[in-house]
Amino acid sequence: MPDPNSMARAMGLAFLTTALVLGLCTWWSRRRGTQPALWIDAGWVVGLAAGFSLGCGLLLPWPHWPPREDLDRFLLIIIPAVLIVELVGAFPRLNRLYWVLWGMVIVCALRVLLHGSIYLAGPPARAWSPAQRALILGSLTGALAAAWIHLTRLARRAPGISTVVALAIAVGGSALTIMLSGYATGGQAGLPLSAALLGGAAVAWLRPGPARGDAPIGVGVVGLFSLLVIGRFFGELRTDHALVLFAAPVLAWLPELPRLRRLPAWARGLLRVLLVGLVVGAVLGDAARRFAAESGPTQPGSKEPSIEDYMDPGL
Length: 315
Fold this sequence. Notes:
Elements: H1 4-32, H2 36-59, H3 70-89, H4 95-113, H5 118-121, H6 130-157, H7 162-180, H8 184-188, H9 190-206, H10 217-233, H11 239-247, H12 265-294, H13 307-311
């Protein structure tokens, strides 16, 4: 496993950077008194961009340009594209353009991540057939669109930070699960994103403002989707783990059921976070158990590292 201290520093930098940028934009919007929602939404996007970039810069190797690998395409194409879309969405007059760009990201995200892989362009024995390609690309793209729509609707129906926090938990848990599944570098990319979402949520909780409420949702959903695709198709992430982790944030809708709707807003928000956290924690616990079983103590004379070796940052 990578150095825990490096991961903690990268997450702390991402958290503080996003919080600082969003906090400044919130303060400026209140000082100016004009278009506060625009300033706060823009602060979310710029803050997430800055926090994620600085965190990844501290934790990961510099990506290749032009992008050659899945992680390069995630860092240099997917995340910048969704940040641009959400920044456009902050301007009400650009609403039509926002939806056009939103559709383009949804349709192209999976294809960009898998570009040049054996699934699309590998040997005939390993590449998908046209029917398999249409089924897999279509179903996963539909799942991404459905998650983005449902979580955006939830953020507008139940204003507050609970949906963003739930997404941050899912992203962070997915990152750790991917690391335990054998793709340490790919998993690490999710840690700064999770911390950046939490940093923005902390400021939004302390200084709430009249924003759309869903500015960070697209970044979180597409980031989660991309991480799980990377872990599943380029690492050894189990399919059942990937499916449960992607579906976990949708559980945040459960407190909006008629009977639970009677609870106070704060209680529904807390329940939202707890439900997602329990599911993500269960998957992470299962991944950790499997990792420990597969890398258990080595026999004398064996060259295979144990789990203690992976956790020792000095190696």
